[in-house]
Write a structure and sequence with these properties.
Helix content is 29%, strand content 13%. The chain contains three helices and three strands; from the N terminus they run βααββα. Strands 1-3-2 form a three-stranded antiparallel sheet.
């Protein structure tokens, strides 16, 4: 028996693999977040797309990048509640 893996999987199988419903996958295709292939009326999802979506996303910044220099960007004081004198 060979160890061949499918290059394309049916949409229902992709839903199970990703844990998403069909409507979510169709919305993701509309928003160009995932690519489908249609062959003779069947909607198939490339395994490369499933693997790309399953990869962890790296954090956008490190903690050191979030430090703001207060000398260049002073804090503006805002009064949240008006002071009512009696």
């Amino acid at each position: 028996m060979s160890d061949l893996k499918p290059l394309l999987v049916p949409l229902n199988d992709a839903c199970v693999m990703l844990g998403l419903c069909r409507q979510t996958l169709y919305r993701m295709e509309r928003d160009k977040e995932i690519r489908f292939t249609r062959i003779r009326g069947r909607t198939l999802v490339p395994m490369s797309e499933l693997q790309r979506l399953a990869e962890p996303v790296s954090p956008p910044a490190t903690v050191g990048d979030l430090v703001v220099d207060l000398k260049t960007k002073p804090i503006k004081k805002v009064q949240l509640f008006p002071v009512v004198s009696r």
